Fold:
Amino acid sequence: MPNWNLWHGCRKISAGCQNCYVYRIDGFHGKSDSFIVRRTADFSLPLKKDRSGNYKLTPDGGLVYTCMTSDFFIEDADLWRQEAWDIIKSRPDLDFCIVTKRITQAESRLPADWGEGYDNVTIACTVENNAAARLRLPVFNALPIKHRLIFCSPLLEQVELGEYLDGIDEVSIGGESGENARECRWEWIEEMFNTCREKGVPCYIHQLGAKFVKDGRTYRLPNRKVQHWQARKAQDLLESGYTDNK
Ligand code: SF4
Structure:
């Protein structure tokens, strides 16, 4: 899936940030200043064209994950955000998916012509635990947004989503990756999946995480491919109503 990382760097704000992959990947490359937010060389990527005049970024349209190495609503990027909104508006053929842990500071950072939301923007509010859900989801649900997702990732406990699911297009659940991953338990996923099903909201298990616990047994899944493959298997089993995925 194509990404558009228009600024890079972020500051940790909640439990889900503990093992942030931006810090992890920067650290791997010997960098220790991931808390500094910088505009990237890709800032204008959606506008760039090749010699044939075709857009370089998904010329045939489609989904673009936006600002995946920072947070779109971080205050450090206030000077650049209006330009980013202008770029987003200029590519109505793309669906920009903005994943944020800073939904509580989004309202004043929406563009003046936002109205009920841009057709080509999906906002995904991340909630990793119940504290984050109680803080962020009432704010999220009160904002005018045309397409809205809830990302429970990294899932750190069973999150009670039931009262927040009206108007949500999809819930996506994922365990934590990386060698310091915290556990993700099968029963949390199962309960949350069933809550979504009762409310008629699609629930997608995108990965089980690197430390997955089921029936008292811990499974180490260091390989992302295996995590994703196991998640697909779990998804199929949950959808079929059969819950033993060992
Ligand atoms: S908000 Fe996201 S990018 Fe920023 S520190 Fe937390 S996990 Fe990392």
User: Anything to note?
Assistant: The helical segments are 21-28, 78-90, 130-142, 186-199, 224-240. The longest strand covers residues 94-100.
